[in-house]
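To close the chapter, one final illustration. This time we ask the reader to focus less on the individual chains and more on the assembly as a whole: which components sit near each other, and how the overall shape emerges from the parts.
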Amino acid sequence: MLKAIVYKEWIKIKRVSLFLLLIGVLIVIGIYSNVRHELIIKDAESYWNGILQQRAIWFYVLKFVPLIVGLLIAVAQFVPEIVDKRIKLTLHLPTNEETIVLKMVLFGFFCTTLILSVFMGMFLGMGAYFFPQEIVWVSFLTTAPWFLAGIAAYFLISFIVLEPLWKQRIFYMLFGAAFLGTFFKGNFPGTNEYLLWPFVGLIACISIATLFSIYRFRKGEM
Amino acid sequence: MLPKLSRYLLVFVAIFTMGYVLPSIYRTFFDVRISSPNFSYSVLNKKFYASKYVDGQNRFSDMEGNEYTREEYMDELPINNFYYHLGKGTLPDSIMGVRLNPAQLRQENFYQGTAALEFSMPDYGLNPLFESASDFGITLPKDVFRIKDRMEFVVAKTNEIDEAKSKEYTQALKDQGFVFPARVLGGIPSFMKSRDDGWFIQDSTLQLFHLKMVKGRPEVNRVNVPEGFKIRKIICNDHASREFYATIVTDDNKLYLLMTDNYGIQPLPIEDFDANRQTLVMGGNLFYKTVILMDEAFTKVYVIDRDFKKVDELKEGLPLKSEMAIGKVEQFLFPFSIALNKSTSLFTGIYMKKYVSWSWAILSVVLVIFTLVLIKRNNRSLKNNILDIVLVFFTGIFGFIAVHMFPNKEY
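The assembled structure is written out below.
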């Protein structure tokens, strides 16, 4: 059963995942091509001074990329399910419907996390070539909430798309936008050190939110 | 069971989000500006004066409530405003028997400010060591240093460690008895300064050292400090007077000056500084130093003479938002509020503010009654909604919106 679900979900998100992976990799390469260019045309110590003393952030372009990844994967995975209410077919399979939906969400979460991990790995790995570990670590602390926002966006969009009523969807979108906004509050390098675990906890809370939508769907909310 | 759990988890996240968003929106629309007055101490009259921004205008007064024009205020404070008097040719020849020399006034005049958030901010732990005896002004070095189990210089161009320089400086520190790693570092990491005095570094055994690079070579001096001198922050300066290298704040919130004369540690007679929430402003002139402690509740000013004895002090309360209409309405609307940023730290966090007043309970009761009416009207059982009602009571408007946004329907 798990194999079949993975196959079905992969068909839906394959194109968008590979496209986002390519775009993200190009963005990270772009960021460090720019860093390399700056280090060549300026004095390296002056560029470092901008980062260390003026707290310059050289990777702002990355800020909303993880959010877009989570959002598009969730849309690609769950919008086809609500077109003509195809999710009904899945929910009528002779197995526990909650388990099926959780497996679908788990697969989407796995793909989103994998893509974001590739971005983060490349971002930090290439960073370590140009900068000392202290700058790489602070870059991690600065970008980590943006990446967590991508995972939160995946869970929220899955939950919102599967919600049967448009009126509720609009409320949920407002709530989702306000919640996701909290991940982008720190604008100073390394400022989010103590907020990462609370963010992980909040994401864990919304990770099974799709079960609430499916429950309402199954009970015939129209 | 799982759908019910997922609903309550969503309600919890919604309460968190509302607790942050609604008070923010409320303050965005209704916040009021509180301008704290600037206090100055007159050498001439030995009393405090205040300048305050009220209704778009500067108002000048003394502590007895006498109002002054701007010109009168400038005349009452000739030393604090000596540039004004120099320009007008009205600077007195002498005050307190001391002949006033403009060059000396300029040299002795200083001002420095340290906000509470400078005690709580992320730090890279990488700093530049400037050449202190440069013939061509202060320029950025090609490397930055870190101090862990040794002193290391990382070259910016190659991102590699300069082993020879690292060994030389590590040895120079060890030769003076430095025990790695460092506890606290203080210096001016910017090249926008009039001179370089290097770095003051406290080691793991609470010894304090002064490290400079002189003609490319390390110069390390030991600073004698009192027993158990746990430094929290070393605030260095490049004041023209060169009277003191730095202001030192210890873990127990005591203030000291690190004097340039033989590295003396001079305590300041300030007993109630709290680095976690107060802004520390220091100013000085030929006659006195003023130390100003500011937070949202009050401003306190200490006047200290050249022998570091307290001459006068002033404490003025500020209007508290919690006692104004904006604060009272806020306490009525919200049982608590959540902020992700605060003015005394650059670290984000979940900063929850619980109000002292219980006026929010009135609205909570109204919302509980409203929720009960809705439950009755929709023929839902009270037993299944008891947790919702408890949530609405304790989290007020946040919980009310959350439990109705994620309806607890019975099918």
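Chain A has a mean pLDDT of 92. Chain A touches chain B through 54 residues (CB under 8 Å). With these observations in hand, you are ready for the problems at the end of the chapter.
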